[in-house]
Amino acid sequence: MQMKPKQLLHIDPNLLPRLLAGAVVIAAILAFSSLIPEQTVVKATLPTDLAPGVLHTGLILASFLSGAALASAIILPALRNAHARETTLKQTQVELKALNDDLHRQASRDGLLDIANRREFERVLKLEWRRAARERQSLSLLMIDVDHFKVFNDTYGHLEGDRCLQEVSAVLNEAANRPGDLLARYGGEEMVILVPRTGQEGATVLAQRIHSLLAERGIAFHASPIADHITVSIGVASMLPIRNLNPHTLVQQADEGLYIAKDEGRNGTVSIPRLRLIPSPESEAKEGDVLQSHLGA
């Protein structure tokens, strides 16, 4: 025996508007009836023993309930829709913020080493320079170059060269472990560490720690002319920044120290001698005096 499929209950989408229209009509009739003099209505429709005010009160109550039902039927769905839109909007804002954060991270990080890139370093350098000038705090920079990296690439290949740079950056990240320190790839096999609130002595100690950690890590490099493992040369510069002086003065000094370290046989650190910085008349008027930068703490 073949069973007939059950038919789903179908609700006419126009049912609710019709019900609302009916409720409006009833409410209008009741409201109009409430305007009829009380005595007339009572005499015409009610027994003589019924209180005269009962009908009038009932009409008002019925009108109120009909209006409330009509308002609920219209307002509550609108409130639910508004709440749903607000929730969707908040979720969209959270997703957009996460996307923007991810895009910013991609734009400011080096794809190979997962450290700050050159652009991010330039941005942070300007910020830290202004803050150090405002707070009269020393700002230090380490310019680091992997010794004989071209020989390493020629000997082991570029894939091993990439792994070598990743291991070196991991060592540098371990050494520069303060929250304010910034490790960045400056270009090729060169990396920099920006160290706020630190003078020459502290920056030199950090450089020596890098040499020690690399020796402990012992990244094999048997073709190196100076050691059997990866080494680096480091130039150190430290200044008391002046607001209107170019922040790249610090970079130039660190680069000069790196050049000397490489010229002296590599696998070492050189700090640039102290320089006396005399601001321009405009800068002098703003600062109020002539500042001397000390490359020491």
Protein architecture, described:
- This protein has 297 residues and is an alpha+beta fold.
- The protein has helices at 15-33, 38-45, 53-108, 118-135, 149-156, 158-175, 200-217, 248-263, 281-287; strands at 139-146, 182-187, 190-196, 232-239, 269-271.
- Helices cover 57% and strands 11% of the residues.
- The protein has a five-stranded mixed beta sheet, sandwiched between helices.
- The N and C termini lie far apart (99 Å).
- Mean pLDDT is 79; it is low at 40-46 and 276-297.
Task: Name some characteristics of this structure.
297 residues, five-stranded mixed β-sheet, disordered C terminus
Tell me the number of strands.
5
* Unreliable stretches covering 5 or more consecutive residues: 40-46, 276-297
| Largest β sheet strand count, sense and barrel closure | 5 strands, mixed
SS summary, helix count: 9
CATH C-level label of the largest domain: Alpha Beta
**From N to C, what is the helix and strand string?**
HHHHEHHEEHEHEH
Look up the CATH topology of the largest domain: Alpha-Beta Plaits
Distance between the termini: 99 Å
CATH superfamily of the largest domain: Reverse transcriptase/Diguanylate cyclase domain
When the domains are counted, the total is 2
Rounded mean pLDDT is: 79
CATH architecture of the largest domain: 2-Layer Sandwich
The neighbouring-strand order within the major sheet is 2-3-1-4-5
Helix/strand class: alpha+beta
Q: Gyration radius, to the nearest Å?
A: 40 Å
**Overall outline:** elongated
Estimated share of beta-strand residues: 5-15%
* Helix-residue proportion: 55-70%
